[in-house]
Amino acid sequence: RSRPAPPGAAGGHGGSSTAPGGSGGAVVVRAGTGGVKVLFSTGFDPALIAKYTAQIEKLNGSVTQDSTDFTHFLTAFPLNRSKSMLCALATGRPVVGETWLKASNGARTFVPWEDHLVRHAKFESKHQFDLPSTLEAARNSPLLAGVRVHVVTPQGARTHPAASAGAMLEVLLPLAGAVMASAADLRGAAAEALEGDGWLVLATQDSSEAEVKRLVARGVPVHGHEMVLAGIVQHKLDRKSSHKIKSR
Q1: Does the model's pTM come out above 0.70?
Q2: Does a cis peptide bond (omega within 30 degrees of 0) precede residue 78?
Q3: Which residues contact 193 (CB under 8 A, 6 or more apart)?
Q4: Strand-by-strand arrangement of the 148-151 sheet
Q5: CB within 8 A of 61, min separation 6: which ones?
Q6: pLDDT by residue (tens digit) across 136-172?
Q7: What is the reported pLDDT for 240?
Q8: 116: buried, middle or exposed (CB in 10 Å: 19+, 13-18, 0-12)?
Q9: Whole-angstrom Cα distance, residue 109 to residue 65?
């Protein structure tokens, strides 16, 4: 597949084909020492996934459907802001195209990913970010490191429904370093703490409107969850953005 010219600097920034969190030189990841574990985009059809799985396993790698435990996200143009894409951006794990697997097959070992990032100029422009820069920043410093985050649940529920935005956030945000907090944790927190950078309270379209109103009346800063999704993409959290909820 052809790739559009990258916006900004060409090519990847920093890192190597190491497991998440790695840094420095063009190190080749070899399965068995942490190993390559590939997460496929849901955009690939089953026949192609079967073909690519066989190729990855021949190179002593493995595949996974777990968006919290992978080393490379294999996808194709055009990019979209899927759960898997967000998980890759939150952790700094490389978003590679099919050229990476083709090159690895040719080399008979997994090659460094830097020259195989999937770039989509229109997508990056729309979301105001540069893919290599976000990945590097996430590897160096998780966006929400140590921040306690509470996502307001639906009315009368203690958990978020499967496939909801809240359920997705419960998976995604810890990958960005967040410490998920319960409603009880939130009730016990001091007002001064809730107003600081150590806390983040989010509401989705499924969150209880009554609870959001109660929190806002209490003076708790509540933000729409789009704020944190945009923050993960850009690796920049704007607490003063238009996503702050004043009333509902």
Answers
A1: yes
A2: yes
A3: 199
A4: 179-180, 148-151, 199-203, 222-224, 244-245
A5: 31, 35, 36, 37, 38, 110
A6: 999 999 999 999 999 999 998 888 988 899 999 999 9
A7: 82
A8: buried
A9: 22
Backbone phi, psi, residue 119, to 5°? -105, 140
First to last CA, the chain: 46
Beta bridge partners, 62, equal 37
Whose tokens are 């529920």? That residue is 157
> Could you read off the pLDDT of 226-237 as tens digits, one per residue?
999 999 999 999
What is the dihedral angle through the alpha carbons of 117, 118, 120, 126, rounded to the nearest 10 degrees? -70
User: Is the pLDDT reported for residue 216 higher than 60?
Assistant: yes
Q: Which residues pair with 74 in a beta bridge?
A: 40, 96
Residue 46 DSSP one-character state? H
Amino acid in the structure at residue 163: A
| Res 18 pLDDT > 80 | no
How far apart (Å, rounded) are the C-alpha atoms in residues 52 and 29?
18
Distance CA 109, CA 27 (A): 12
Tokens describing residue 174: 């810890």
Q: Which of 23, 13, 36, 211 is nearest to 119 (CA)?
A: 13
- Per DSSP, the residues of 99-148 read HHHHHHHHHTSPPPSGGGB---HHHHHHTT--HHHHHHHHHHS-TTTT-E
- Neighbouring CB atoms inside 10 A of 43's CB total 14
